[in-house]
Description:
22% of the residues lie in helices and 32% in strands. It is an alpha/beta fold.
Amino acid sequence: MIIQQHLWRASEGWNPLFSKENPRDAQLVLVFGSPLLLRNRRLVEDIKEAYPAAMLFGSSTAGEIYGVRVFDDTLTATAIHWEHTGLRFASEIIKNAEDSITAGRRLAEHFDYKNLRHVFVLSEGLHVNGSDLVRGLAEGLPSQVSITGGLAGDGDR
């Protein structure tokens, strides 16, 4: 597994800068940041240009973790390349908390279980019942598949 991390701050821009040494064949870039910065198309385009083959996956936060520090009002991008791991993306729209368990079950239907080992879930946290979402997902997946993730939050913003 090859990992490359980047942090964007208003005072510095991207650090480290994107370069030819980036694992351009990264399959996944985890992106976390303040809501305002996530809406900045130029910053998102920077990531897409640096990692054209990658899925971008992330959420808004109330603090961004980079290395061993927590930052506010920044954007983090962690590009990951695996030698022997396949990735799949699935999403469901949840209109209200009562739909959470059903959405979890529907998410489980998106996956081919043959080689599935783990599901990583990110969801908005305001209108979703996280416990029900996970319960529905667990009901629909084989018991040997582990589940981790989190509910997005951005404090009082």
